Amino acid sequence: MASVDILFQPVDLPKLQLKNRIVMAPMTRTFSPGNVPNDKVVEYYRRRAEGGTGLIITEGTCIDHPAASGYPNVPSFYGEAALAGWKKVVDAVHEAGGKIAPQLWHVGGIRRPGVTPGGDTPGHSPSGMARPGKVTGHAMEQADIDAVVAGFAKAAADAKAIGMDAIELHGAHGYLIDQFFWDGTNDRGDAYGGDLADRSRFALEIVRAVRAAVGEDFPIIFRYSQWKQQDYSARLCETPEALGDFLKPLAEAGVDIFHCSTRRFWEPEFEGSDLNLAGWTRKLTGKPAITVGSVGLNADFLPNDGTANFREAEPASIDTLLERFEKDEFDLVAVGRALIANPDWANQVRDGKFEGLAAYEKDMLAELV
């Protein structure tokens, strides 16, 4: 195995300094009763910071909008109780030597009435669709768009006020922001529909509003993906040129770091180059990029929830990741399920204790701290 030292070099990004290159990927858990992070949530994040993770990106947290939440017991990022809970998380992570950013989230058309908070509010999306061709909810009007933009900006300002080190906007995986990007769920005839440049208007308004709310020096991370949970084969951009045209306006609007969500980090994004999505993003925008997708998963880490068939051993190996870091392809790497199973994954990798890494199992979530 190549030396893992490159993973543990301090990283000095323009607005964010980290002790290493390892990021905890955001993973929804639905373990915040009443939508308020409790002491178990505090301990969950503290343990991963103590275990050596440089930057924690929290599970998705819902902004203050009636249609933002799509699942029970997902933590909110508004209101006195929820923000007080998150302040405890921030303090615990900082005391353990880590840094933390909330992922700010609106599920869009995926919401179904009855989920708390929100009650009977239907899903909100650009064209009333959660997936192509099927209208199930409310097509957003201008007042809805304005309210959601304001909700993201307020959440970002609150994150800064309680001591978070950055924020991440969830623009991936077929949730609201991505529903505007994707032509499969956006067939609007106004300024928010049309080609991808016009379908990006909603996201650009959010980024600009967040930047105005937090000031110039506070980091904004933007997570995006080609694939959607509604369609793993969906693609926003078929060429590097199209990807550059999509990303550059987001960078100009205020995005500091792109979190490039793929299902397998080792797979090339476009023919003719070995660069993955994060590699292309960094090359095209000049902005720092986070890679993610089955990091550290092998035969022992196969998920049993049926969401994907992850390749075994070599493609997802740490060696493959290290080789790409040595080529300076991207800046940071986000680790998901491996950190669920091993709160001290970073320290174990640093110390070469690979044989001691526990396998991820879905049932771990039930009792996890």
TrEMBL record:
<dbReference type="InterPro" id="IPR001155">
    <property type="entry name" value="OxRdtase_FMN_N"/>
</dbReference>
<protein>
    <submittedName>
        <fullName>2,4-dienoyl-CoA reductase</fullName>
    </submittedName>
</protein>
<dbReference type="GO" id="GO:0010181">
    <property type="term" value="F:FMN binding"/>
</dbReference>
<dbReference type="InterPro" id="IPR045247">
    <property type="entry name" value="Oye-like"/>
</dbReference>
<dbReference type="InterPro" id="IPR013785">
    <property type="entry name" value="Aldolase_TIM"/>
</dbReference>
<feature type="region of interest" description="Disordered">
    <location>
        <begin position="114"/>
        <end position="134"/>
    </location>
</feature>
<dbReference type="Pfam" id="PF00724">
    <property type="entry name" value="Oxidored_FMN"/>
</dbReference>
<dbReference type="GO" id="GO:0016491">
    <property type="term" value="F:oxidoreductase activity"/>
</dbReference>
<feature type="domain" description="NADH:flavin oxidoreductase/NADH oxidase N-terminal">
    <location>
        <begin position="7"/>
        <end position="294"/>
    </location>
</feature>
<dbReference type="GO" id="GO:0005829">
    <property type="term" value="C:cytosol"/>
</dbReference>
